[in-house]
Design goal:
Organism: Chryseobacterium indoltheticum
GO molecular function: DNA-binding transcription factor activity; sequence-specific DNA binding
Keywords: DNA-binding, Transcription, Transcription regulation
Number of strands: 9
Protein name: AraC-type DNA-binding protein
Radius of gyration: 30 Å
Pfam family, one: HTH_18
Number of helices: 11
CATH superfamily of the largest domain: Jelly Rolls
Helix content: 40-55%
CATH class of the largest domain: Mainly Beta
Largest sheet: 5 strands, antiparallel
CATH topology of the largest domain: Jelly Rolls
CATH architecture of the largest domain: Sandwich
Length: 296
């Protein structure tokens, strides 16, 4: 193992930036001394831990569950730990190991969010405890925003001590939490947006036989009419009206072969109030009237 130069020693930093009864902020920056460098951090009992990964290719092994994760530069996680445990960090290929840990006492967050005040607060705290703020998409940790970077820089560069430092650090941590909640909320909205066409199709598949207008579908699904039409057509390359008509005609064709069911009954079953409208739509679709198709 090689010996560090004076310059390398100067660039190896690990220190406590702030500590109070409820919050601890630790910054670590180390250079590889061999093939790889290992470090570790402690997650306290009943605590939330914000880990910001500030160098590339950081591996994390959690001792409590044996989970191994790998992070890119500028990713982060918000993790809840019910019991104290140790986690190992390491990097490879002569990379620098650089990260910042913010540990927050559970009771502090509980008092801050006040889950008893409203359902949104309850949901946020439950998501935090269930570690819903680790992966933004499937197994991909979220990326730090520019504003998060600025806050970390302000935290690490703040020089005042005492009450002023405590108030400053707490304010910045609250801002970080707000940014995290907003980032994940945007992700949820994006997911909901991507599922909109599927939700519309599911509703139509289950209700095509009813005499529903676009306005009624819009109100039931809580989607405005223009968005309803646009997203369905973009996703399925047909209009809602044409899709409903297609479903009705396919059902009608199956029912026609049953001679015991009257044409009028088929029309009503397929969502047509007037048999003339049904006959017209059927002939347009299949080139023959329902009666002639039945007769062969």
């Amino acid at each position: 193992m090689r010996t560090k130069t004076a310059k390398e020693i100067d660039r190896s930093k690990r220190g406590l930036l702030f500590k109070s009864e409820d919050i601890k902020v630790v910054f670590s920056e180390d250079e590889t001394t061999g093939n790889y460098l290992k470090s570790h951090f402690i997650e306290g009992e009943s605590s939330f831990n914000l880990l910001f990964f500030l160098s590339p290719n950081i591996n994390l092994l959690a001792s409590d569950c044996g989970t191994h994760l790998k992070f890119k530069k500028n990713q982060y996680i918000l993790h809840y730990s019910s019991a104290e445990h140790r986690a190992e960090l390491w990097t490879e290929n002569q990379d620098v190991l650089k990260y910042l840990q913010i540990q927050i006492n559970y009771q502090y967050v509980f008092n801050l969010i006040d889950p008893n005040s409203n359902t949104e607060s309850t949901e946020i705290l439950n998501n935090m405890k269930n570690n819903s703020f680790i992966f933004l998409h499937k197994e991909t940790p979220p990326n730090m925003t520019v504003e998060m970077h600025m806050i970390l820089k302000e935290i690490s560069g703040y020089s005042k001590k005492g009450v002023m430092q405590k108030l400053f650090i707490e304010a910045k941590i609250i801002k970080l939490l707000v940014l995290i909640f907003e980032q994940f909320k945007e992700k949820d909205n994006s997911d909901d947006h991507s599922k909109t066409p599927e939700a519309i199709k599911k509703f139509l598949d289950e209700n095509y036989h009813k005499n529903l207008k676009i306005e009624e579908i819009s109100k039931i699904l809580g989607i405005n009419q223009s968005k309803l039409r646009k997203e369905f057509k973009e996703h399925y390359h047909t209009t809602i009206v044409n899709y409903i008509s297609e479903l009705r005609m396919l059902k009608a064709k199956k029912m026609i072969i049953n001679n015991q069911i009257m044409i009028k009954e088929i029309a009503i079953e397929c969502g047509y109030e007037y048999v003339q409208n049904f006959t017209r739509a059927f002939k347009k679709k299949f080139g023959v009237s329902p009666e002639k198709l039945r007769l062969g």
